[in-house]
């Protein structure tokens, strides 16, 4: 299996499926003819796949028959029902689940013995090759399959392998984080507009700042506290802003947001 020849079939082609496909296309990691999908709304599916030059399939069995890697991109509560008609066709293929909260042991109960499967949940920035894939360490891929799989994903993002018990918190930070970060960017944009910037200028500055800060932290392995300190001159403007954020409870608000999101897994 190589990136030049592999065929990726999506069962379900909503936001997550489209983000993954767009990332492969954006980074030119895969060609459009190497990807295909099926979904409940076939007319909508055709519009989304044809716009990308991908294949569209009438049902999941056609998708699985064609694909080498089957991406299960459906809501967690749908997994069992969606697998039922295709589980006898998965031998010799890689089943990749992006369904949050459905782990290795769950799939072992739903699948016939010997099926090679892995859970790797993406974040939406995968669409521009900057995603985070929370991969459950426990999987049933061979060594070669796992190496290929991680190499393929690394073309469009950061691959973070975590123990099963930590998948949910890792996915909350990387998967819910874009929404939290977007709210912060929007707030910065509002402040910029208040002081005379156009909305587009303010959002461009906020987005560029977030992208650059993240790359600096990853690229240099910097501690976020040190990066904050580096910008805070004694008696300067930034430390005044930091003090205001501390007074407003930014840290506790973010931690509270993560706790609220994690509560969904505990219901």
TrEMBL record:
<dbReference type="InterPro" id="IPR000304">
    <property type="entry name" value="Pyrroline-COOH_reductase"/>
</dbReference>
<dbReference type="InterPro" id="IPR029036">
    <property type="entry name" value="P5CR_dimer"/>
</dbReference>
<keyword id="KW-0641">Proline biosynthesis</keyword>
<feature type="binding site">
    <location>
        <begin position="73"/>
        <end position="76"/>
    </location>
    <ligand>
        <name>NADP(+)</name>
    </ligand>
</feature>
<dbReference type="InterPro" id="IPR008927">
    <property type="entry name" value="6-PGluconate_DH-like_C_sf"/>
</dbReference>
<feature type="binding site">
    <location>
        <begin position="11"/>
        <end position="16"/>
    </location>
    <ligand>
        <name>NADP(+)</name>
    </ligand>
</feature>
<keyword id="KW-0560">Oxidoreductase</keyword>
<keyword id="KW-0963">Cytoplasm</keyword>
<dbReference type="InterPro" id="IPR028939">
    <property type="entry name" value="P5C_Rdtase_cat_N"/>
</dbReference>
<dbReference type="Pfam" id="PF14748">
    <property type="entry name" value="P5CR_dimer"/>
</dbReference>
<dbReference type="GO" id="GO:0004735">
    <property type="term" value="F:pyrroline-5-carboxylate reductase activity"/>
</dbReference>
<comment type="pathway">
    <text>Amino-acid biosynthesis; L-proline biosynthesis; L-proline from L-glutamate 5-semialdehyde: step 1/1.</text>
</comment>
<keyword id="KW-0028">Amino-acid biosynthesis</keyword>
<keyword id="KW-0521">NADP</keyword>
<dbReference type="Pfam" id="PF03807">
    <property type="entry name" value="F420_oxidored"/>
</dbReference>
<protein>
    <recommendedName>
        <fullName>Pyrroline-5-carboxylate reductase</fullName>
        <ecNumber>1.5.1.2</ecNumber>
    </recommendedName>
</protein>
<feature type="domain" description="Pyrroline-5-carboxylate reductase dimerisation">
    <location>
        <begin position="166"/>
        <end position="267"/>
    </location>
</feature>
<feature type="domain" description="Pyrroline-5-carboxylate reductase catalytic N-terminal">
    <location>
        <begin position="7"/>
        <end position="101"/>
    </location>
</feature>
<comment type="function">
    <text>Catalyzes the reduction of 1-pyrroline-5-carboxylate (PCA) to L-proline.</text>
</comment>
<comment type="similarity">
    <text>Belongs to the pyrroline-5-carboxylate reductase family.</text>
</comment>
<dbReference type="InterPro" id="IPR036291">
    <property type="entry name" value="NAD(P)-bd_dom_sf"/>
</dbReference>
<dbReference type="GO" id="GO:0055129">
    <property type="term" value="P:L-proline biosynthetic process"/>
</dbReference>
<dbReference type="GO" id="GO:0005737">
    <property type="term" value="C:cytoplasm"/>
</dbReference>
């Amino acid at each position: 299996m190589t990136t030049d020849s592999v065929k990726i079939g999506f069962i379900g082609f909503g936001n997550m499926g489209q983000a993954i496909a767009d990332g492969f296309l954006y980074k030119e990691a895969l060609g459009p003819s190497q990807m295909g999908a099926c979904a409940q709304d076939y007319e909508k599916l055709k519009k989304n796949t044809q716009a990308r030059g991908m294949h569209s399939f009438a049902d999941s069995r056609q998708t699985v028959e064609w694909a080498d890697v089957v991406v299960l991109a459906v809501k967690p509560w749908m997994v069992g029902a969606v697998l039922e008609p295709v589980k006898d066709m998965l031998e010799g293929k890689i089943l990749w689940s992006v369904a949050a909260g459905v782990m290795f042991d769950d799939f072992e109960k739903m699948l016939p013995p010997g099926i090679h499967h892995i859970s790797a949940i993406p974040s939406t920035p995968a669409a521009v090759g900057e995603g985070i894939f929370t991969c459950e360490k426990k999987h049933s891929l061979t060594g070669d399959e796992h190496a290929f799989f991680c190499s393929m994903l690394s073309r469009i993002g950061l691959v973070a392998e975590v123990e099963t018990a930590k998948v949910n918190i890792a996915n909350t930070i990387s998967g819910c984080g874009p929404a939290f970060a977007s709210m912060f960017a929007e707030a910065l944009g509002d402040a910029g507009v208040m002081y005379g910037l156009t909305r587009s200028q303010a959002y461009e500055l906020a987005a560029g700042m977030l992208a650059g800060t993240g790359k600096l932290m990853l690229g240099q392995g910097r501690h976020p506290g040190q990066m904050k300190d580096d910008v805070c001159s004694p008696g300067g403007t930034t430390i005044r802003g930091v003090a205001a954020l501390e007074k407003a409870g930014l840290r506790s608000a973010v931690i509270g947001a993560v706790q609220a999101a994690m509560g969904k897994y505990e219901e």
